[in-house]
């Protein structure tokens, strides 16, 4: 039996140390652009929209004519796990069913910290990697936290196989760079530093101008010379 608390901690540590090794930009951009549809599912399940999005990418390559749970056709009864679901009238209906009625029952999950979110996502692909003490490619493929090892069929693990799909962690990291509203457990990425209150919109400092040849300070030698020249030129 996998210790989910330990898995949550392990994935939080991996997240803190992870670096991308593949290009996630195109997939992440497509997921963020569909934010409205994922938010509609979030409103019905309380599963964060970005978590729904990466499940959609992993399970169905973001196809809208499939079921979220396993990528089977939306208008047919599913044959892959979870089997016997559908048909559904809309992608959203199928997604709500997958998140609410099918393991690992994401709609019941409450830990939306980064470690908790990744722990929940890992359960969608099974805990076989965790039982081996390995990072799951479902989460870490495309980062330096994963090199090789993959279940190529049910119960068959090949230590040399490499998952070519993009993992959930790298997708989320890249999405966060595109949409700053994405956060885990209420913790958002730091906002850009606001402009200084002493600066104007043009970027110049506000307040009185600094003394110069053109604008000498009162009572200075520069002010005396300036007034002398002004008097001379007024006489001409």
What is this entry, summarized?
This protein has 236 residues and is mainly α. It is built from ten helices and two strands. A hairpin with a 2-residue loop joins strand 1 and strand 2 (156-158).
What does this structure look like?
- With 236 residues, the chain is mainly alpha-helical.
- It folds into two domains: 4-178, no CATH class; 210-236, no CATH class.
- It has helices spanning 4-17, 25-33, 35-45, 49-60, 91-101, 114-124, 128-131, 137-140, 168-178, 221-235; strands at residues 150-153, 156-158.
- The longest helix is centred in the last third of the chain and has 15 residues, at 221-235.
Keywords:
236 residues, mainly alpha, two-stranded antiparallel sheet, 10 helices, 43% helix, 3% strand, disordered C terminus
What class, by secondary structure content? mainly alpha
C-alpha termini separation: 101 Å
Strand order of the largest sheet: 1-2
Number of helices in the DSSP assignment: 10
Helix-strand pattern: HHHHHHHHEEHH
C-alpha Rg (nearest Å): 29 Å
Largest sheet: 2 strands, antiparallel
Helical content stands at 40-55%
Indicate the topology.
Elements: H1 4-17, H2 25-33, H3 35-45, H4 49-60, H5 91-101, H6 114-124, H7 128-131, H8 137-140, E1 150-153, E2 156-158, H9 168-178, H10 221-235
Antiparallel strand pairs: 1-2
């Amino acid at each position: 039996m996998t210790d989910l608390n330990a898995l949550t901690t392990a994935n939080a540590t991996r997240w803190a140390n992870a670096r991308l090794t593949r290009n996630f930009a195109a997939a992440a951009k497509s997921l963020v652009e569909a934010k409205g549809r994922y938010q509609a599912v979030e409103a019905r399940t309380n599963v964060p929209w970005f978590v729904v999005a990466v499940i959609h990418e992993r399970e169905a390559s973001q196809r809208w004519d499939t079921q979220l749970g396993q990528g089977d056709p939306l208008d047919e009864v599913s044959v892959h796990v979870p089997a016997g679901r559908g048909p559904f009238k809309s992608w959203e209906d199928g997604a709500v069913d997958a998140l609410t009625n099918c393991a690992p029952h994401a709609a019941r999950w409450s830990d939306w910290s980064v470690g908790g979110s990744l722990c929940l996502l890992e359960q969608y692909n099974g805990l076989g990697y965790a039982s081996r003490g390995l990072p799951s490619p479902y989460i870490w493929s495309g980062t330096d936290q994963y090199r090789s090892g993959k279940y190529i069929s049910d119960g068959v693990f090949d230590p040399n196989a490499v998952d070519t799909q993009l993992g959930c962690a790298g997708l989320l990291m890249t999405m966060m760079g595109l949409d700053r509203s994405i956060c885990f457990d209420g913790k958002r990425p730091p906002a850009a530093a606001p402009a200084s209150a002493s600066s104007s919109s043009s970027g110049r400092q506000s307040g009185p101008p600094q003394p110069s040849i053109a604008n000498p300070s009162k009572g200075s030698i520069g002010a005396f010379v300036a007034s002398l020249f002004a008097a001379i030129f007024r006489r001409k």
